[in-house]
From TrEMBL, chain A:
UniProt membrane topology term: Multi-pass membrane protein
Protein name: Sugar ABC transporter permease
Organism: Arthrobacter psychrolactophilus
Listed Pfam families: BPD_transp_1
Record CDD domains: TM_PBP2
PROSITE patterns cross-referenced by the UniProt entry: ABC_TM1
Automatic annotation (TrEMBL), chain B:
Keywords per UniProt: Cell membrane, Membrane, Transmembrane, Transmembrane helix, Transport
Protein species of origin: Arthrobacter psychrolactophilus
Start-end of Pro residues biased regions: 13-22
Name listed for the protein in its UniProt record: Sugar ABC transporter permease
Gene Ontology cellular component annotations, sorted alphabetically: plasma membrane
Subcellular location: Cell membrane
TrEMBL record, chain C:
Keywords assigned by UniProt, alphabetized: Cell membrane, Lipoprotein, Membrane, Palmitate, Signal
Signal peptide bounds: 1-26
PROSITE patterns per record: PROKAR_LIPOPROTEIN
Pfam families, A to Z: SBP_bac_1
Name assigned to this protein: Sugar ABC transporter substrate-binding protein
Residues passing through the membrane, by range: none
Organism lineage string: Bacteria, Bacillati, Actinomycetota, Actinomycetes, Micrococcales
Keyword NAD in record: no
Highest taxon above the source species: Bacteria
InterPro entries: Bact_solute-bd_prot1, SBP
Gene3D superfamilies: Periplasmic binding protein-like II
């Protein structure tokens, strides 16, 4: 009996300490995530300029959103820019495979390809803006060497999105390369050996051993890249102030920011941000769902 | 997934290791040779890629040393002649670069130092301590990760506006001090590998939880903390959206905003050398840290991914 | 171990606390009041203001914190400051924002401080400037005063005299404007390849649609809005004709740098390098243009069917915050910046504006030692034929911005002006209706 009481006092003490340890993140979460989120839900049903009190307007903001061509254009632009995700992932997987070979210089290459990842995105956006300059930019100089007359990338509706994608791939490739490399190195050797005993060629080994082992990392990278990609802002704001030619590069976050802080349409901006949040949430949830089902089939 | 049976995700360690049958020596040599040729091709390709990766950075540096006119020279010069080092002196008086560095250090430093302490204690509690409904709590926190910052920024802004913190560094600092769920998540993953029995034993020995944390937990999760710390620091250092919303006065701006406004101000005067010099200065600190600690950083990032 | 760990935490917290203490809200200096003044501009303006404000500080025993932003950032920064409840005591406001700021109670009604005041003589300030900040609750241009003009900015038209001399073309008249056709003819003569390398390197003109369309629209008898600003009128034939003519300068007459050439080095830079014949000149450009290696001067804008030249006069106002803790001093600062002779002189000397004070500009226009020679053109615009920008009289500028957002295909010759304007009018009308509704005059 006495040991039980002693244990339960101990437990209670432990719970108290544990509560203190988790208190900060939980409070932070409540104050800086839950409360703003709830307020967002409320504000999205109001007309609100950030100065006077919000006025309840029901679904007006959402109705306006449905017929706002710029909202749809910004959504489309954001989605389009995500083409960079599969491109980046494929390239970085190739890189990781190359660096996984037993050869000299891999450490050096690994470092070089990682440098853009650690570089400040604002500085990187500035230098790429200059690199994409029509006449004096690095890109068109390089293209000229092979006889191509390059466009004025950022001023052209057809090329501004590809330009930003090129930059994003350049910037982000090193990170996924590194994660792929680590995953490759953790594939147990005997799996390959077993596969090769079964008579599997290099390609078959890649398909049947390597790819399945990379699935968790790929999943992680896809989920985080989509969450990150849906929030693209800095590159847009610096490289194409004003949202690019004919709004061709304005991302949804950029548009929200404009509406909120340049036109002081806080209510409308909030409702758009809420829709963005819901979409991100739904897409992530679906991915987790699909991933779980796939893992089932492997086991 | 037709081969699913042969590609079990987690290999059973108990399966005895079948040794490879020895190949005839000649065939092995031929394979070696093939592999070496493969290496040469791969190295050449990787080198070309490396040039592409580094060219924009080298170009930035090169431009930063040019005269106004040399920027528009055709064909472009890679090695500026004359090299105008004065650009790097001019840049300090051309805008609040110095206070930008200071502000960025204040924000990134305080957030990561305090936030890391908060996060690691929380991770310890979530992983190893008794707390009713802690798993539910943890999942809720984790779900919060999926809320994009733009969905909260407007109410957050109004919150800080109400207490008069706009145009100070506080809105950038305070939320970070409460810890970071990503970090908690990775540290908790790490801690799951420590057997509970060790901690139970320490508890019976009468050690306080802080002691257990310091003696048993900290040594194990140190590499993970270091990795997360560095990543977080770089994340805060490079942040742009929150600063652009909150900071107005030039002297309160973080480095990223300062160089962005350099870009806006001096582009109309086509003073690209100055812009590039400022950008290069903004790149340099992280670049230096990276070159010095590149092995540790790369290994810890890789480790983070493996845990994810 | 335990103590070491605790010390670690304590040290970390202390370090953070130390860092934090350095970044709280700026403390006000001992004694005296502090005003914040937010404005936009370049280095010249900042230097001129620093000097003038130094004197104000001494005379009034206050400290003035200056927040200066780039022109592009200003609107966003100011709005963030307002939404962030950190409204500067004194700040620039453009006429188009006045209604919204009055309605939301951001700016102070300063009528009682400036009308019949000893320290400022409104009759000696350009009427256009003062009236731009009057609002009677319904219409701009009449009623109470909510800001004082920082400047009036007649947006005039310049030409490269040296280029004319070299080409042997008679100089344009300072009194009679070109017709549209005459202008194109002259511009064609100026557009050429001077060094015979097969590429054009000199052009008649190169204008930005957003800032240069207005003179041609107005002088062609068209306008953006009807009288009571309830209807967007960009779909008239006169409007389409002038926009088409503007676009044709590039596509048909080919007297401007091509799209690619203009994007690479914009026409502003090319004008300064002496490659452009005609280019707009505002007072704020004078300090830069004074140093140009060629002769230039001002002329009236080419005129369309009305035969009368037109252009806009920009202006920025200096407003006082309703939430200022030192409203009297803040109003004094606004008055000082708008009308103090020393302050005006240092701004005029810096070449960033024409004098706000009428008597001072009479002196200034006679001064033949400074450029441009035809300063009278600037004054004519202010006194006579300059107008406010179309969005100045509405609650929000969204309807006006809309016109320029998708205009590129017209400039590229891929769409006719008439067709584009027909598509744009309903969209603009929708935004205008919203603005009017927000203003309470729906």
């Amino acid at each position: 009996m006495s040991t039980i009481t002693r244990r339960s006092t101990l437990h209670r003490k432990e719970q108290r300490v544990a509560l203190i340890f988790v208190a900060l993140p939980v409070i932070g979460f409540a104050v800086f995530t839950i409360f703003p989120l709830l307020f967002s839900v409320y504000a999205s049903f109001t007309e609100w300029n950030g100065i006077s009190a919000p006025v309840f307007t029901g679904l007006a903001n959402f109705q306006a959103m449905m017929v706002d061509p710029y909202f749809w254009q910004a959504m489309w632009n954001t989605l389009f820019l995500m083409i960079g995700i599969p491109i980046g992932l494929s390239l970085s997987l190739l890189l990781a495979l190359a660096l996984n070979r037993k050869m000299r210089g891999t450490t050096f290459f690994r470092t070089v390809y990682y440098v853009p990842v650690i570089s400040s995105i604002a500085a990187v956006a500035i230098l790429w803006q200059w690199a994409f300059n029509g006449d004096f930019g690095l890109i068109n100089q390089a293209l000229a060497m092979i006889g191509i007359d390059g466009p004025n990338w950022l001023a052209n509706t057809a090329t501004v999105k590809p330009a930003i994608i090129i930059m994003s791939v350049w910037k982000g490739m090193g990170y996924s390369m590194l994660l792929y490399l680590a995953a490759l190195q953790s594939v147990p050797r005997h799996l390959y050996e077993a596969a090769s005993l079964d008579g599997a060629g290099v390609l078959q080994q890649f398909r049947n051993v390597t790819l399945p082992m990379l699935r968790p990392v790929t999943f992680f990278l896809v989920v985080t890249s989509i969450i990150g990609g849906s929030q693209i802002f800095i590159e847009i704001n610096i490289m194409t102030p004003g949202g690019g030619p004919e709004f061709a590069s304005a991302s949804i976050v950029w548009y929200i920011w404009q509406k909120a802080f340049n036109y002081l349409q806080m209510g409308y901006a909030t409702s758009m941000s809420l829709v963005l949040g819901l979409i991100v949430f739904a897409v992530t949830a679906i991915q987790f769902r699909l991933n779980r089902r796939n893992q089932f089939s492997i086991d | 997934m037709s081969h699913s049976s042969t590609t079990t995700a987690s290999p059973a360690p108990s399966v005895p290791h079948t040794p490879l049958p020895k190949l005839p020596a000649r065939r092995r040599n031929a394979q070696d040779k093939q592999y070496r040729i493969g290496n040469i091709i791969v190295t050449v390709l990787l080198s070309l890629g490396a040039i592409i990766m580094l060219a924009p950075l080298v170009w930035t540096f090169s431009t930063s040393l040019k005269t106004h006119e040399a920027v528009f020279a055709l064909p472009p010069q890679w090695i500026p002649a004359p090299a105008v080092w004065e650009n790097y002196l001019r840049v300090w008086s051309a805008g609040p670069l110095w206070s930008g560095i200071k502000n960025s250090l204040i924000v990134a430093g305080s957030v990561t130092v305090v936030g890391t302490v908060a996060s690691s204690l929380a991770a310890f509690a979530f992983a190893k301590m008794r707390l009713p409904a802690k798993n539910v709590l943890f999942l809720v926190l984790l779900a919060g990760m999926m809320v994009p910052f733009p969905s909260m920024m407007i109410p957050q802004f109004m919150m800080f506006a109400t207490i008069g913190w706009v145009d100070t560094l506080l809105p950038l600092i305070i939320p970070g001090l409460f810890g970071n769920i990503v970090m908690i998540f990775f540290l908790k993953q790490y801690l799951d590998s420590i057997p509970d029995s060790i901690i139970e034993a320490a508890k019976i020995d009468g050690a306080s939880f802080l002691q257990i944390f310091a003696k048993l937990i900290l040594p194990v999760i140190k590499p993970a903390i270091a990795a997360q710390f560095i990543l977080w620091f770089m994340g805060v250092w490079n942040d742009y959206l929150a600063p652009i919303i909150y900071l107005n006065s030039p002297e309160n701006q973080t480095l990223q905003l300062v160089i962005a406004s350099f870009n806006a101000t001096y582009a109309t005067q086509t003073d690209y050398p100055l812009i590039m010099a400022a950008s290069f200065i903004a790149l340099l600190p992280v670049l230096i840290i990276f070159v010095i600690f590149q092995r540790q950083i790369i290994e810890s990032v890789a480790l983070t991914g493996a845990k994810g | 171990m335990k103590s070491r760990f605790k010390t670690g935490i304590v040290a970390a917290v202390a370090a953070a606390g130390l860092l934090l203490s350095g970044c709280g809200p700026a403390a006000t200096g001992a004694g005296g009041e502090t005003l914040t003044f937010m404005f936009r501009g370049g280095a010249d303006e900042k230097a001129a203001y620093t000097k003038a404000i130094g004197e104000f500080e001494k005379a009034n025993d206050v400290k003035v914190n200056m927040i200066v932003t780039t022109p592009d950032d200003y609107s966003t920064k100011l709005k963030a400051a307002i939404a962030g409840k950190k409204v500067p005591d004194v700040f620039y406001v453009d006429p188009g924002s006045v209604q919204a700021y009055v309605k939301t109670g951001v700016v102070k009604n300063i009528s009682e401080f400036v009308e019949g005041s000893d320290s400022i003589d409104l009759d000696n300030i350009w009427q256009y400037g003062v009236d731009s900040y009057r609002f009677d609750g319904k219409l701009m241009g009449q009623g109470d005063i909510y800001a004082l003009p920082k400047d009036v900015g007649p947006f005039s038209f310049g030409y490269n005299k040296t280029m004319f001399d070299e080409a042997g073309i008679p100089l344009p008249s300072a009194d009679t404007p070109y017709t549209f056709d005459e202008f194109v003819d002259v511009a064609k003569k100026l557009t050429k390849d001077t060094n015979a390398d097969g590429k054009l390197d000199q052009w008649g003109t190169g204008l930005n649609v957003q800032w240069n369309l207005q003179p041609f629209v107005w002088s062609n008898g068209a306008d953006w809005l009807n009288q009571d600003r309830s209807k967007v009128t960009v779909d008239t034939p006169e409007f389409a004709e002038s926009l088409q003519w503007f676009a044709d300068l590039q596509n048909v007459a080919k007297v401007t740098p091509s799209v690619g050439e203009a994007q690479t080095l914009d026409t502003y830079q090319r004008w300064m390098q002496g490659q452009i014949g005609f280019f707009p000149v505002g007072p704020w450009d004078v300090s830069t243009y004074e140093k140009l290696p060629f002769e230039w001067d001002l002329i009236p804008y080419p005129a369309g069917s009305t035969g009368k030249s037109a252009t806009w006069t920009g202006t920025l106002g200096i407003a006082v915050s309703n939430s200022s803790k030192a409203p009297e001093k803040a109003v004094e600062l606004a008055k000082f910046l708008s009308a103090n002779e020393t302050a005006q002189q240092s701004l005029v000397d810096a070449g960033v504006q024409i004098p706000n004070l009428i008597d001072m500009s009479d002196q200034w226009v006679k001064d033949s030692t400074t450029k441009p020679a035809n300063k009278q053109e600037f004054l004519d615009i202010v006194k006579d034929y300059g107008r406010g920008l179309p969005a100045n009289s509405t609650y929000s500028a969204e309807w006006y911005d809309e016109l320029f957002k998708n205009i590129q295909p017209v400039l590229d010759g891929k769409k006719t002006a008439a067709q584009y304007l027909k598509e744009a009018q309903p969209k603009m009308q929708k935004y205008l209706d919203q603005a009017n509704q927000a203003a309470g005059i729906g």
